[in-house]
Amino acid sequence: MPARDRRTIGELLAGSDALARETLLDATPENARAMVRSWNQLVASAVHLWAALASRPDSMSGSDPMERLRVVGQAIGRSVRAGHWPGHGPTDDHLSEISDNFSRTRHLIERHDTANTNRDAHTPDIRGQVMHTLYVAAHGTAVALGAYVGELQHRLEVGTRRRQPMAERPTILEITEAQGMIARFGGFEQLAAAYMFGQPLPSGDPGKLKAAALATRLETALAAWEVQAHRTLATSPDSADLVRVARVQALIASTTSIVTEAAATTGHIDPDLLQRLAPTLEANQVAWSRLAKRWGELTSPASRTDPALVAAASEVRAAIAATATTQNGWATPDQLASRVDLVNTVKTLHLSMIASVDIAHVARDTAADHPGLTATARIIGMRAQGEAEIAIEQGETRYEGVRWTTPRQISANEVIPLPEPARRGLINLTEDVIATTKQSVAAAAQLDPSGVTRSVRSGPEARRGRSVERRQITHPPGPSPKGPRR
Fold this sequence. Notes:
The chain has 486 residues and is mostly helical. 68% of the residues lie in helices and 2% in strands. It has 16 helices and four strands. The protein has a two-stranded antiparallel sheet with strand order 1-2. The chain has a two-stranded antiparallel sheet with strand order 3-4.
């Protein structure tokens, strides 16, 4: 019989933070896949612990930072359960132990509540410690994944040079999937950092309070949108849902471009940042718009958008309109500067771009796996044949001579299941979205709310893996009398 765990709440949280730091010391290629498999369980335990804590009375924002992290953790978990990389297998001992510690902490807190124990003074510190542990663990996982990708690339180069049999070499697909997971964990890390290193709330100045109200509405609307997009895509989405998701993401990219240009024009940020960021945001907006158009082709008269998604999208549009537009279109840089704190608004929008990396990955998984995707026969006949011809030109032979629809289906324009070539077209367009989103995040890396310049890494830098520089993790600022700054 195991000995009773007598650790206090503080000891459990300190132990969890130490375990998270150990993931950096053990961030080897061998641990990367197990760490990814453990992530959803870890985040779920943190969510339950967070829910056991009292709400912060001083918060001006209606958004819950843990809710943003929860949907990302769940999306990664769904991807693993669906058989995507890294697939099923063993989990990581460090992350599993942190999860157990969080669960034990929650039980202690709930027991103290039952005994009417006052824990309000400890709540802010618990929140900060939980978020910091997730932040460090996400970074450790990203470092391990970077080392794993570097090892795969090295093995592939050696295998190609030595002409090893294809079955003995890593595949390009596995490398690509692992690189995509690095981007998702990098986004998670920066979302956690935004909570820990957020700016303090403004003073009682009326102008600043009005600007803060606009900024809070925009921040809340974007956070609620990210959560609802994940929820809708996780529950049998319709093609119309994907159209709405892509259109709103295109709008967010455009808004980010407009506000960033205004901040650079008015001298609030370095103009060089705009030079790097503007082309990537434009490409991202175009990529999302193309994806929206393709999903739009697959809708039918029976297609219906999730009402909750419609409501979240409407609030995003309204918040953007109130913040960044006039009756004549986009607001001028001077008008924007008079309405909001441009630096913090740019950071808010950049944070939403970071979150959209995971939304794009979920959209790709939906295109690849969702069994209920359908379209009208005439659209399928056109799109499936076009994608099949492209694949045939690239050496794919199994599509040769295949007919994707029957004359009867074409005549009646029936709604039929989406065949593989049509799915492949959606996946390819979503890959463009993922690539351009990652480029935008990397270009704006200096806006990272943690103050640490960090971007989505691939290629030679990813191979550095366990370098001392990348293992350095800053402590969150000490809690103020009202808790950690947001």
